[in-house]
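Minutes, project check-in
Item: structure for the 490-residue chain
Input as provided by the requester:
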Amino acid sequence: MNLRTTLLLLLLAGAGGASYFVYQQLQPGNPKSKTLTFLEKNLTPAGLTRIEVAQGKDTRLVLERTGNEWSLPGKWPVRSVAIDQFIDTLTSLRSRFTPVALADKKQLAGYGLDDAALKITVRLDGQEHKLLLGEEPSADNRFARPTYLVLDDEKEIVRLGPGLAAALNRTQDYFQQRRLFPTEKPAKPGDDKSEQLAAQAVAVKGETSEFALVKKGSEWEIEAPVRDRPNPDAIKNILLGIPDLWAEKFVNTSPTREQGTLKKQLEDFGLAKPEYILTVTRPSGATIELLIGAVSESKERFVLKQPPPGMPFPQKPQPQFIKEEFRYAKLKDNDQIFEIKSDKLKDIAPSLAALRDPKVARFKTDDVKRLEIQHGDQTLVFAKEKDKWKFEKPLTIEAENAPISDLLEKLSGLQARDADVLDKADPKTVGLEKPKATVKLTVEEEAGDKDKKEKKPRDIVLQIGVKEKDKEKLYVRVEGRERVNAVDDS
């Protein structure tokens, strides 16, 4: 190898090293650029909790995250696909160019970063950051124009790819979902296949009722105004009815001179003092509060009702008129007013008497595996083996099935309604300070999903009292509950 070749190789090696150094300096995350480091390392989906998009003085979009769920103001649900694409675009901003030093704010206009630029304010890991995005003013094809970005008060402008400002310039309408409440498939085996409300708590305030429900495990309980077990049919209607409240039509509330007024006020829509208020706490902990006001429209729709299947002779469809009622509604912290169909409101807001379970204890007689009866000084204990009942106490002998089955049928059929349900009864006055008898049932019920059916035991203890002056009535209380039930002494 001659000297000329050696020198040429050295020059090439030096040029390669210099090129690599320059390349490294241009890579995102260069420690000399706080903006590039922020985009590369800090701006991640996991850290974002709030996003506000504005252009000039116009706030176009506000998004907030509770848990893993994003929503619009008022906890209005968003289209998940649209929000995923938006977050992915925002957190994937990258640059392969060296930032331009910013010496004077007058330079910003030349990059489209003036007062009309897009401003995105994010709350990231508890701190607020502002991203200003714009496009260089030019008569050229706008799809080829790069996007420029300034972070907070950094004295540098970063060049990004084309079209990013337009992709991030979204309004509330783009994300808004017409379904207001989330749904899920029933968890309990044998439940209706229809999707029901996904929630941890529900509060309803209606024209004639007001109550609060809370979900404990897989079961719903009445939390207020009394603590009780709900009627399964009533709770099913509520869980199926609330998801049917959709934003059927949005109402234009922009200023008009209609009837001499500048704008319809909330009073005109019946929303200043709503007739119904539904508050739903989602599994994530986010709370949606729906205000329902005055009737907006009532109309009749003509349909042909099809005959039931299995008729011996072909039947003609019968004409039928269906009445449809619509009401104005809005979410508590969202100014958008819309209309909902109100035909499910009667099911969603039943009276407290209709909401409460009339049954004293709800169980299937076939699920009872053990029965204990304490009456005075006498204790009887029965256990079920397969289909046979046996005494365990006071003797260990076989028992007759018929009397035990008859007793279980009567216990499972005990009901109390209206005046026979006592919420604040003094135990002394109903003979429950020292119960006349106690019946303990051990039941084994199916739990889990359809693929993993398991038998889960639970105990039901019935305390039975008698009034001295009213011996035709028994007063029954389930242990652990305040409610006392007046039932016939049968």
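Outcome recorded: The radius of gyration is 34 Å.
No further action items on this chain.
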